[in-house]
Amino acid sequence: MKMYTLKTVLSFPLFMVFFLGIGGTCAFAQESETSKDSAAFSDVGPSLKELGEAQRDIDRYEEAQDNFNENVDRFMNDRMRYNEARAKFDRARSLYEQEEHQFNKTYEKFSRERDRYLEARDKFVGARERFQEARGTFFGSSINAANKSNADRMEGKPGR
């Protein structure tokens, strides 16, 4: 028996006709199966549409999630900056309160010193007035005595 190689078989026109016949039958059978399945796949159409909408919803959700995460990051950064600013403010307020306390102590000391100065000045003014009165009285009586003595001499009265 003679063996045929694939090349001789494919070159044989009858085999080609046979092959095309079987292929055509398969294609017809597949087409009829496809027409049966197309009715079944017609129900899949809305499901695919729903899948597309679901995918869009997922995309929107992911975008919203990204926006939310960005907002959370922004919020956390703002909160961190606020906490830093608050800490700086608290330090500044503490320094201000220390300076204010020191100023109040210094002002109280100044007030006591001023009060002592005013009291001493009042004593000095009173002492000066008393001194001037005493001097005026002393010199006034001396002047009066001297004037009287001079007047007596001029009149020829003997001196004392």
UniProtKB/TrEMBL annotation:
Positions in coiled-coil regions: 51-102
> Which residues constitute the signal peptide according to the record?
1-29
Q: Which UniProt keywords apply?
A: Coiled coil, Signal
For this entry, the protein name equals: Uncharacterized protein
Which organism is this protein's natural source? Candidatus Nitrospira allomarina
